[in-house]
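Researcher: Let's continue the batch. This sequence belongs to Xylose isomerase, and it's 434 residues. Same format as the previous ones, please.
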Amino acid sequence: MTDFFKNIAPAQYEGPDSTNPMAFHHYNPEEVVMGKRMEDHLRFAVAYWHSFAWEGGDPFGGQTFERPWHPQTRMDMAKVKADAAFEMFDILQQPYFCWHDADVRPEGDSFAESLKNFEEVIDYFEEKMSTRSVKLLWGTANMFSHRRWMSGASTNPDPEVFAYSAATVKTCMDATKKLGGENYVLWGGREGYETLLNTDMGRELDNMGRFLNMVVDYKHKIGFEGTILVEPKPQEPSKHQYDFDAATCYGFLKKYGLENEVKLNLEQGHAILAGHSFEHEIATAAALGVLGSIDMNRNDYQSGWDTDQFPNSVPEVALSYYHILKDGGLKTGGTNFDAKLRRQSLDAEDLIAAHIGGMDVCARGLKAAAAMIEDGGLEDALAERYAGWDTDASKAMLAGGLDGTFDDVMSGRINPTPKSGRQEVLENYVNRFV
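Model: Same format as before. Here are the structure tokens for Xylose isomerase:
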């Protein structure tokens, strides 16, 4: 036990009229939305790294947080960090958490020593989980922080780094399975290039495709029943990363025969870096059949980098969950808070309040999305706009060739009249619910 969260009681739902900053105002896990408990829709997961491993630094300044588990280079501190993490899970009572290997254990002097440290922490996690209801949403490997990964992991020009990456992922998949994880994530933090002057793109893409096939093969070999997820990101730290966005990842999966084996873990902040909205990325993945899970954070729109802030825009979140609900909801995936405090937010209360606020925003967004679906206004507008495609003439046109279509247009039988897209009307409609 630690005293980091002393005097902070478990967060309770107190309703929208409460002024208690340490209570839920909108997230009521037992509330039924579209026939399912809110907790089962949202499937919240606390991210171990930003909440416990990040020390408050940024590109222009170092550590600002002073935690009882610092320094993070010792095994005894890794267990103190785990104690604090599970104490926070008890306060928030969220159903899941998730981790990178490098964030839960200290780096050893060799791979074998790092693995020994990792397995000891995983055993410690298993012991703590046995007395709680919290589960593992997913595990993943940090293959971007250490200098060995400076030129990538599976895309590295050095085959020994590829081998080290394969061994690292194997250990993380084993640990994820041991803890009953429901997914395994691969985020290619440096799977890209700084310059094409020293990059063989074709070789790197083929190696990345081979690596992911090896991951899928190992999943089946060990009987892991969870979902393999890839997380898109366009840039930062690499100039260009191969997993740029949802559409790029789908093309990659198709090329290497993985579209039926792998789904996507989408992050709002990464969508913004790619020049998209989060709803675009979710709708794209849903349309392509690869929507898996979401990282619910946001970027600062006045900053050009990945700031990983807690969500605070109900309209943005509502439209995201609208497309998730239309796709049938999150299956093995969940809503992971890959979000972090501002480096000036030093206190334990800040960490709890940030998660409470993010969970409340997601709850409000989910209820707004469900209300829009139940009302049916957007679906009615879509059906009206595309109604022409349901006619026999349109179906015959699709089945025919260019020459027949040309004859219909040339004869004047087809002479289209533009129709309003009614964007402003639909935006006003959405604002009724958010």
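Researcher: Any comment?
Model: The CA atoms of residues 122 and 175 lie 7 Å apart.
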